[in-house]
Each structure stands twice: as C-alpha cells, then as structure tokens.
C-alpha cells in the first residue's frame, strides 16, 4: 500500500541537488507503512531523502539498515529540528541501534539509553557518513534570545517566604505539595494568590528519572522543549490565560493532535488565575483528567491519550468588581446575587474535586512586618515535604500509587483507615449534607498528608477535623 509523501517530489529534487547529489532519472514511489496510520509533519524528510539515495545506489544499501532518520530538510539541504524526537526514539528503541537527528535534537535523543545518536547539520554530512566518512562535527546550538527562564532559574528567584501575612495559605500550599492535593485560593487582588501559586513548585521535590522522561516527552511532542534542552527535572508550572480555548487546555487541534496545558502540567502544577473568567465548558473539561489522570482525545480516524496527572491550583476574586473595603476605598459595590453568579461560574462538581480551599484576607503593612519573623523559606518547607512524601511512599510500597491524592477511595477506606474514632466529625458532616462521598475521600487523603507532615503513623481526630475545615474552606 502506498501513501502520499509529506513533501512534493519537486522539493526533494531541490534539496538533494543543493546537497551536491543528482536526482535519479526514473519514476520514484514512496511508500509509508502502515498506510492505515495517518502521517503528518516534516520529520519524515531526511528518511525519505536517504531512502531515495539508497534506492539509487548513491549510498550503500546496507548502511541505513537499523538506523532511524528523523529531521526536517530545508531547501538548502540543512537539517532542522522537529518536535517529538524523544518519544519517537523511545518507541523505536528495540528496533533501531542508531538514530540520526538534527544537531538541535541531539541532547533530547540522547536521553534514551542504549541508542547511538548521530547529530548532523546538513544532509551532505549524513551522506558522507553513510559512505564511510567521519561522523559529522556539530556546530554549537545557539540559545534562543530573550527566551523564558528555565524552571531551575525560576525556582532560584522565587521563595515561599515572600508570601507575607498569609500563614494559613502557606500551610495549605505545604499540605498540597506533600500529598499532591488540589488547591483553591479565594481573595481580593494583591492578597498573594498568584505569588503563592508561582512558589508552589519551589517546595516540590525534583522529578524522578522516569517521571522526568515522561514530562520531557510531552513537552517535546507539544514543541515546547527548548532547542538543545535535556531532561526536564523540575516539576512543570503551566499557567494558561483565561481566554484559552478548550483545545489549548485539554489538548486537540484540527490537524495533528497535540497535548494541552493539562498535559504540559503533568507531574507539576496547573494554575488557573482568575478561574471564574475561564469559559465554564473549559473548566468542566478538567473534571475527567482530575479523576483519571489522563486526557483522551477522540477523532474520527484516531484516538490520542496524554497523561495529565497534575495539581490544580485555582485563584479567584470574591466578586466581579474585586474592590476591597478599607481606608481610602469605596468597597465592593456588587450585590449578593452578582457575587453568587460570579463564583457559580466554577461548577460545584469541579469544586468537589478540590481538596483544599483557602480564603485569603487583605494584608496590611503591620501583618507583613509581623509575619517576617515566622515566614519560612522554600528550602525549609521543601525538606518537610520531601520527608512527608518519603513516609507516604514507604506506606504505599507495592502499590501503583506514590501520593495520598492518588489512592482510590475504596482502597483508602479498606487498607489505610485513620485511627478508631477519628472519623466521628466527618460522619456528622456527611449526615448534615456538608460533605459528599467524594469529598469524604478527599478529606481522609488530606488527613493522611497532615499525618505524614507531623510524622504520625495514622491520622487522628485533629488531622481529620483540620482536613474538614480545609475542604469546606473554613479552616482557621
């Protein structure tokens, strides 16, 4: 079965001639197998060019065997990087021994163990190497000018101690970091909601190698991996704008299906600032990945599954006008009905999936000066978070879960119950209709994270009561 090649024959003719090679004087048919699988993109360019040269006896036919060629060809014969190199090489790891990529993709392809990586700047260098010549000499890869700071550089500049006057919110961030719980921040502008969310990655531990490869693969597929970048070891932080479409948040696209912000935040933080300003359908689309940890995008001809196990952090103002009463301020002019309609843009089922809800109050200068003596640095809090996660990992050894937020409710109740009598207040809250069945599971998970932070073997009544207050948003 034959398939249409990604580029026209006339373009390949020009690329080969600009590389110093002659175009075969015969009809050429390119077959891309399997034909039933749709193929898009320019990553096939170099492989097709090498196949044409091998068929024309311009290079030894046996030389390309067992090798993968993955790069785009420019009209001048230069090799250009393509997205998705890491997952492509990892998927073909058992069937290939050598991978030839553009110079900018060398660091990414080299992350796959046991595969020989050959980088080249032009097709001519690849042809010389296939004919028995020396390996190409890579030119230095220039760093993108004025690019966004890396996660490492960002983490060095931000510190949790900068969030002054919000001790309860800092504690909530520590709890969420320890157990992987979702967080909701409600408060007036300037209270520190965005500051707190941006500093949450600074108290998270670095990614383990398997998780780092998974995160790097997702960013590579999305084309978000910087040129020459290696493994992404820091938890990602993704903060899409409130005007983002559903495809931008959960993934999709009219042509090639690409991961969205939910998958780019895998093993990290997805921050929705001004959450009520997002379209309601976009917010509700997050309910499924919050439960399953993955995004399933179905199309008529194919289905794509992207991992999306992230910590959701939502920030919102208490009303549309966002005016806070105080000296020299007129205060809020919104009616109670307007406030309810504004906050109701975040649906109840989505809020039911948020483990910790905190209401931030306006911070005065006196609060900030007083809190300087008690605000802990990110490094101090991160040590407690790492110790709590180690206790959780030891308890969950032999299971597919590593964080309290990942444990299913049935397993939680059967194998990891709190101390006897600790759930009395939770039972009363459920009888009064204050807590749903899903909320009860989340409360127990948060109680376990509190116990891990306190170094206790089981959560007691104090941890359960605090977890109830955090879930209801009334903890003090």
TrEMBL record:
SMART domains: AAA. GO terms for molecular function: ATP binding; DNA binding. The keyword ATP-binding applies. Pfam families: ChlI (PF13541), Mg_chelatase (PF01078), Mg_chelatase_C (PF13335). It comes from the Bacteria. The keyword Heme does not apply. InterPro entries: AAA+_ATPase, CHLI-like, MCM_dom, Mg_chelat-rel, Mg_chelat-rel_C, Mg_chelatse_chII-like_cat_dom, P-loop_NTPase, Ribosomal_Su5_D2-typ_SF. It comes from Trebonia kvetii. This is ATP-binding protein. The lineage of its organism: Bacteria, Bacillati, Actinomycetota, Actinomycetes, Streptosporangiales. Keywords: ATP-binding, Nucleotide-binding. Residues 256-318 form the MCM C-terminal AAA(+) ATPase domain. Belongs to the Mg-chelatase subunits D/I family. ComM subfamily.
